[in-house]
Write a structure and sequence with these properties.
Blueprint lengths: L17 E5 L5 E5 L12 H9 L4 E5 L11 E4 H18 L7 E4 L4 H12 L4 E4 L2 H4 L5 H10 L3 E6 L4 H6 L6 E6 L6 E4 H4 L5 H9 L5 E6 L9 E5 H12 L4 H8 L4 E4 L6 H14 L2 E4 L9 H10 L4 E4 L1 H13 L1 H9 L3 E4 L6 H15 L5 E6 L6 E4 L9 E5 L3 E8 L2 E8 L10 H7 L6 E9 L9 E6 L4 E2 L5 E2 L1 H12 L3 E7 L6 E7 L1 H8 L5 H4 L3 H17 L7 E7 L18 H7 L1 H7 L9 E2 L1
Parallel strand pairs: 3-13, 5-6, 5-7, 7-8, 8-9, 12-13, 14-15, 15-16, 26-27
Antiparallel strand pairs: 1-2, 2-19, 3-4, 10-11, 16-17, 17-18, 18-22, 19-20, 20-21, 21-22, 23-24, 25-26, 27-28
Helix pairs in contact: 1-2, 2-3, 9-11, 12-14, 13-15, 14-15, 17-20
């Protein structure tokens, strides 16, 4: 149903004040006219502030780490956090060793993870949060060892020593300290987090006084989808400023009044990635908010946990990746009680990490209207690990997906004409100075004016009205040519094709490099398909089900009718009975597909798509 005529629930954004200038060489500069609010010297400041002014407010909450199915939440207030942090800082200082050497963190999101992270930075030690899969799932631990050699951490933290034993055993630990929360690991110099903590002395205050804005706070790792991970330098200034860049487009008094005093979020995005670590954890900390740590995710195995948590926690903001929104859309449609809790206090929704289809938005909005009588803005944030992370967002009530909005106060965009598109570059207080111990990649990442090259193309929603913002126009690295020389924007094809099919597919991978036409690998939304067919079928049965096939065919025929040219038209699709496998890097921790990895691992499926004599399961459009 159409909801565009209904009002939005009041969103407390400040007025848009985009500033533009066009240079003689054709470049376009964009900046935000709203001033950047003052930001603290370091990442510890928000915790200190809330510990003084809201000591009893819950900072973090988590399920029982041993048995997460237990009812209730374990909580940590800001006042309790400060006491524990000071004790851990003293432990880091007493440990000695190589001064300022990093602390590697191998852990899912947890209260102890956060305490180790902030305590290490307080003690002058940068942290290196590593994707747990590198230590838990990998067979050869090549990436874990690459990161270990690159960053040379003096201390390693693991949540569970037994769980991470294989990964630790693959590292040349020597006598480096391993800190653990549960189950001591074997054959290493190990100490529990409780034993690390020591009574705080004046040395703790002296350590805090030494922390400076341009000190290295974190080494955030890129995904490494096209090579070894890069270690992105994140300073205290970058991340502290980025939190205030986002708050600089909000009317905070109105927001506080609407939310009942402070912000609440329940989120699964991993802290080993910049989105979860900064846009979620640190931003909520900067708000003085409460973060419920979600150990669920938009995967078949972990989705029930995610939905259970969201059904218990009435949040004021919800921001996540498109894959999670797609899963949540189906759940909200099916579970009225979930929808009532979810929308009760919600002021704004947002997504990032990948482009999202309009169909997902419309489905979520239809439920919101049914439950509340109002639309609730679902906007986008945009950025990269190198921008810590948010460089722009849609800071106005919005009902159009695919936008990246306008630059936030504190950074400036440069749009550089490239062929028929505009390449996006950014410079500002939130932008990294470069990659750790990698001067060649650092030099290549910036242009002659110091703008970071994001690798994305953008376009104006309305060239005559720049204040309407920018729309994503494809990842330059994902674009490829067909055999006839036509350029294909894989990102645009992916989003529009999934939207046209209308819920049956959770995602697609776009194929066609040096081929005559575009084909797709299609991944099912199993929950939606079960509702469509009315049966509880296996994925193997669903990919051959006539209703599923008919929906896919009809959706892509409609898509082709609207996109008849060779650079957009889809010729064939093969549905995949096996979903993207996180174990093999096909799907990231944030829940979206690594297109290049899927194409590599499913090369045989791609070959079948282009066979002159296609198999019967190939759907020809």
């Amino acid at each position: 149903m159409s909801t565009t005529h209904l009002p939005f629930r009041n969103v407390p954004y400040l007025p848009q004040k985009l500033q533009t200038s066009r240079l003689e060489n054709g470049d376009i500069l964009l900046s935000n006219g709203q001033p950047l609010k003052s930001f603290p010297t370091h990442l510890l400041a928000p915790i200190l502030y809330s510990a003084e002014h809201a000591s009893d407010r819950v900072w973090l909450a988590q399920r029982d780490p041993v048995d997460p199915l237990q009812p209730g939440w374990q909580t940590l207030t800001y006042g309790q956090a400060l006491v524990r942090l000071r004790a851990l800082v003293q432990g880091f200082l007493d440990h000695g060793g190589v001064p300022n050497a990093p602390v590697m963190i191998l852990s899912r999101n947890s209260i102890d993870h956060a305490l180790i992270m902030y305590a290490a930075m307080w003690a002058g030690r940068p942290v290196v949060p590593v994707t747990p899969a590198y230590a838990l799932i990998s067979q050869d631990f090549s990436r874990l060892n690459y990161i270990d050699k690159l960053t040379e951490p003096a201390i390693v933290y693991v949540e569970d020593g037994v769980q991470y034993q294989r990964g630790l055993g693959a590292m040349a630990l020597d006598q480096r300290l391993v800190i653990y929360s549960r189950n001591a690991p074997e054959n290493c110099n190990a100490k529990s987090i409780n034993d690390l903590a020591r009574p705080a002395t004046s040395d703790v205050d002296a350590a805090l006084a030494r922390v400076q804005p341009d000190d290295l706070a974190k080494l955030m790792l890129t995904s490494g989808s096209t090579g070894e991970p890069k270690a992105v330098i994140n300073t205290h200034r970058m991340v502290s400023a980025n939190a205030k860049m986002i708050r600089s487009v909000w009317d905070e008094d109105l927001l506080a009044a609407q939310s009942g005093g402070h912000q609440v979020m329940c989120n699964f995005l991993p802290w080993s990635h910049t989105y979860g670590a900064h846009a979620i954890l640190h931003n909520m900390t900067d708000w003085g908010g409460t973060l419920y740590i979600d150990w669920g995710a938009p995967t078949p195995e972990r989705l029930p946990q995610m939905l259970r948590n969201l059904k218990e926690v009435s949040t004021t903001q919800h921001t996540t990746v498109p894959a999670a929104w797609a899963a949540l859309a189906t759940a909200l449609e099916q579970d009225r009680a979930l929808a009532e809790v979810f929308f009760k206090r919600l002021i704004v929704m947002a997504y990032g990490g990948a482009a999202m289809g309009q169909d997902i938005y419309e489905r979520i909005q239809a439920v919101a209207v049914n439950v509340t009588g109002e639309r609730i803005s679902l906007s986008a944030g945009y950025g990269a690990t190198e921008t810590s992370p948010t460089a722009s967002n849609v800071h106005w009530p919005n009902d159009t997906m695919g936008l990246i909005g306008c630059p936030l106060p504190g950074n400036e965009f440069k749009l550089v004409p490239a062929a028929e598109k505009l390449e996006l570059r950014v410079r500002g207080v939130n932008v990294t100075p470069g990659y750790y111990r990698d001067p060649e990649r650092t030099a290549a990442a910036f242009d002659e004016d110091g703008y970071y090259r994001l690798g994305d193309a953008v376009r104006f929603v309305d060239p005559d009205m720049p204040e309407k913002g920018l729309a994503f126009d494809g990842r330059t690295a994902e674009e490829f040519k067909l055999a006839n020389g036509s350029w294909v924007s894989a990102g645009q094809v992916r989003v529009k094709a999934v939207a046209a099919i209308g819920g049956v597919l959770s995602d697609v991978v776009v194929c066609g490099l040096n081929q005559d036409n575009i084909c797709l690998l299609g991944f099912l939304d199993e929950t939606y398909c079960a509702r469509l067919t009315g049966e509880a079928l296996t994925p193997e049965q669903l990919v051959g089900h006539e209703q599923v096939i008919a929906s896919v065919r009809q959706g892509l025929e409609a898509y082709n009718h609207s996109h008849p040219n060779a650079a957009s038209r889809i010729a064939r699709i093969v549905l995949q009975a096996t979903p993207p496998q996180a174990d093999f890097g096909e799907i990231t921790e944030k829940g979206y597909i690594n297109q290049s990895r899927v194409l590599s691992l499913r090369a045989d499926e791609v070959h079948r798509l282009y066979s002159a004599d296609p198999d019967t399961d190939i759907i020809i459009i």
